[in-house]
Design a protein that fits this description.
With 276 residues, the protein is mainly β. It has no helices and 27 strands. A four-stranded antiparallel beta sheet has the order 9-10-11-12, with no helix packed on it. The chain has a four-stranded antiparallel beta sheet with strand order 13-14-15-16, with no helix packed on it. A hairpin with a 2-residue loop joins strand 6 and strand 7.
């Protein structure tokens, strides 16, 4: 929050916190201010689904998993999510009703969400640390943490390749994020998609991945690429900013969390017919 000397056009800061202000007003004599501070909170919930005439329907109400969490990821018998304890951000695991923190840092901000390897034994995640962005991998229990990449500017969610030998993530090149394959064995990174592309999600059969294209206003197109990077046919889908997708049981059905930016709901998209 700043004050401005209108005559001399000199601003000076009057608040140096991290608050997000949504309104501001002053008293008639100009000696007092009143402001509204936003206190955003995210939480993770679980909702069971059943099949009804080919569509997924809610089978019972949602149940709270964690009141202070975001970006959940499902493993075979565990759930990962990002949570906060004060200024400390970490990755948490929920296994058979028991939660524990497996990684945390006061110096880093996690970019996107963690990614679970196909065999469920390793986790990849990217963070911002000062002026750098780093890609980490570690064991499922938080052991053997190591830096896989520290020389690129990363964006969005990383994802493991189906063979478990590389990570696909968006690397900023020529001012745009573009999906790139980063190998675990140290081989040179391999550009995968040549256009604006972030937040990749592999199909269950590993033949192609879907990703988010460039924002146009408050919307973006959903696109797809084959495993070798060639364009993959996909019905025309335009999503609102903040929308997320996941595959539902087979390579031809997507769950889309979309709708208005402030009010999103899940729906199913049949990739064969384009019907949502």
């Amino acid at each position: 929050m700043y004050a401005l000397d209108v005559e001399r056009r000199i601003p000076h800061r009057i608040s140096s916190g991290l608050e997000t202000y949504t309104s501001l007003a002053a008293s008639a004599d100009g000696t007092r201010l009143v402001a509204t501070i936003a206190s955003a909170r995210t939480s993770v919930w679980r909702m069971p689904l059943t099949e009804d005439r080919g569509a997924a329907t809610a089978a019972g109400g949602p149940s709270l998993v964690s009141a202070n969490a975001a970006t959940p990821r499902l493993g075979a018998d565990f759930l990962l999510y990002v949570s906060w304890r004060g200024a400390r951000q970490g990755i948490w695991s929920l296994t058979r009703g028991t939660t524990r923190e497996i990684w945390s840092s006061v110096r880093s901000h996690i970019i996107g969400g963690p990614a679970i390897a196909p065999d469920g034994r390793r986790i990849a995640f990217s963070v911002e640390e000062g002026e750098k962005t780093l890609l980490y991998i570690m064991d499922q229990d938080g052991a053997r943490v190591r830096v896989l990449s520290d020389s690129f500017v990363l964006r969005g969610n990383p994802v493991w390749a189906p063979d478990g030998q590389s990570i696909v993530t968006a690397v900023v090149r020529d001012g745009e994020p573009r999906l790139t394959r980063i190998f675990l064995n140290g081989d040179s990174p391999l550009p995968l998609v040549s256009e604006y592309s972030v937040d990749p999600v592999w199909s269950p059969d590993g033949r192609f991945l879907v990703y988010s294209g460039a924002d146009v206003g408050t919307t973006f197109p959903l696109r797809a690429a084959a495993a070798d990077g060639r364009p993959y046919p996909l019905p025309s889908v335009i999503l609102s900013r903040g929308a997320r997708v996941a595959f539902f049981r087979d390579p031809q059905t997507l769950v889309i969390l979309g709708g208005d930016i402030g009010h999103q709901n899940p729906s199913l998209l049949d990739l064969r017919s384009g019907v949502q």
